[in-house]
Amino acid sequence: DDKMFNKIISKIRVRIEHVFGFVENSMHGSSLRSIGFDRAVLNTDLTNLTYNLLRYEQVKRLNLKTWR
């Protein structure tokens, strides 16, 4: 039962974990230092925007097919 569940969600899990791995390893995103909720949200939003721009450039440069 657990093996079937893991097989179903593994494709989704790997996509998400690769994003977090890239942010942590390449962008030093494992820690967040800011005072206040609004600044923390802004920092997270800018990190996500930066990741998306880098990923977009990579997809275009390598002519990759997206998963959808």
From the structure above, extract its key features:
single chain; 68 residues; mainly alpha; 0% strand; flat
3D architecture notes:
There is one protein chain. With 68 residues, this protein is mostly helical. Helix content is 75%, strand content 0%. It has two helices and no strands. The chain has helices at residues 2-26, 37-62. The chain is flat, with a radius of gyration of 15 Å. The mean pLDDT is 89. One of its GO terms (molecular function) is DNA binding. It comes from Pseudolactococcus chungangensis CAU 28 = DSM 22330. Residues 5-53 form the Transposase IS4-like domain.
Query: In angstroms, what is the radius of gyration?
Result: 15 Å
In sequence order, what are the helices and strands, one letter per element?
A: HH
Tell me the structural class. mainly alpha
Number of helices: 2
Q: How much beta, percentage-wise?
A: under 5%
Q: Into how many domains do the coordinates divide?
A: 1
Give the terminus-to-terminus CA distance: 28 Å
Mean pLDDT: 89
Please state the overall shape, judged from the principal axes of the Cα atoms: flat
Organism: Pseudolactococcus chungangensis CAU 28 = DSM 22330
Protein name: Transposase DDE domain-containing protein
GO biological process, one term: DNA transposition
GO molecular function, one term: transposase activity
